[in-house]
Design brief:
This protein is of the alpha+beta class. It contains 1 helix and 3 strands; from the N terminus they run H-E-E-E. The two termini are 13 Å apart. The mean pLDDT is 81.
Length: 77
């Protein structure tokens, strides 16, 4: 699944890419939980960091309403 040139980028099997990303994300989440760094959650009124013990800290304040994406093209590299 190595991309040698930009022309090869469109020929990547998307299922393999998604599986690799999900596996790496699971590793990252496991390390973050073990170190109790907290997970970042975006809510309508701000950005919060939630820790293992259930505590929550507001990191940023603002209006973060959901927006629709006009184009669904994803560039991985």
């Amino acid at each position: 699944m190595t991309v040698i040139s930009l022309k090869d980028e469109d020929n990547l099997p998307i299922k393999k890419v998604i599986k690799a990303v999900n596996k790496k994300m699971n590793d990252v989440i496991r390390v973050v939980d073990a170190l109790n760094l907290g997970r970042t959650v975006v809510k309508a009124d701000g950005v919060y960091r939630t820790f293992n013990d259930g505590g929550s800290v507001k990191i940023s304040e603002g209006n973060f309403t959901k927006r629709k994406v006009a184009a669904k093209k994803i560039k991985l590299f």
